[in-house]
Amino acid sequence: METTDGYRNRKIETETAGGLLQFVAEQQTYKIGPICVGGEPDVQPTVLIGSIFYHGHKITTDEDRGEFDAEATEALIRQQEDFAERTGCPCMFDVVGATPEAIERHLEFVAGVTDMPLLIDGTTVEVRLAGLENENQEQVDKYKVKVEAIASEFGITKDINSVGDMFDVFEQIVFQVSQHPDDPVP
């Protein structure tokens, strides 16, 4: 049986056995901080990823300046951690920002409240890069596995030891996509 991979719109071969989806290709597992993602279905628990500070989120008071209700934000973070603990589903936080200033404030606050991995999300590339640029080495270590995993999908091998290394990888990916827009992944 063939189906389409929604990420790259490529055809992938699948087989079903006993009602479970089995992939012909070997499934990869990645460790992001203490969280394992990927792999065969039903082997790793589903990862709960909660978005915070998204457009219109009621905890946000000024999206552009990154102002928010700190008490309500911490309560939401603790609630997600509680859900993760009670259900056995590990969690991460998708930290969203509308501007470079906002993403910096948001990441700083959430990183100060939780040890869970943080995914940097923003309305533009400029915002996402600002989020990466302003993280300290401890934060770089949190994201390096994810960036290396993305790079490997594009056939790029690079050890990530700094934000600059991350930018190098992203530049290579952007160049590769611009050269092969119909099928950028080797």
Task: Provide an overview of this structure.
This protein has helices at residues 70-87, 100-113, 125-133, 137-153, 163-179; strands at residues 2-5, 10-17, 20-23, 29-32, 35-38, 48-52, 60-62, 67-68, 91-97, 118-122. By secondary structure, the protein is an alpha/beta fold. It has 2 domains: 45-135, no CATH class; 137-186, no CATH class. Strands 1-2-3 form a 3-stranded antiparallel sheet, with no helix packed on it. The chain has a 3-stranded parallel sheet with strand order 6-9-10. Strands 4-5 form a two-stranded antiparallel ribbon. A hairpin with a 4-residue loop joins strand 7 (60-62) and strand 8 (67-68). Helix 2 packs across helix 3 (125-133) and helix 4 (137-153) packs parallel to helix 5. It starts with a strand and ends in a 7-residue tail after the last helix. Residues 1-8 have low confidence and may be disordered.
Strand order of the largest sheet: 1-2-3
Could you report the average pLDDT, rounded to the nearest whole number?
80
How many structural domains are formed by the residues? Answer: 2
Uncertain regions spanning at least 5 consecutive residues: 1-8
- Total strands: the figure is 10
User: Which class of secondary structure composition applies to the elements?
Assistant: alpha/beta
How does the major sheet shape up? 3 strands, antiparallel
CA(first)-CA(last) distance: 23 Å
In short:
The protein is of the alpha/beta class. The chain has helices at residues 70-87, 100-113, 125-133, 137-153, 163-179, and strands at residues 2-5, 10-17, 20-23, 29-32, 35-38, 48-52, 60-62, 67-68, 91-97, 118-122.
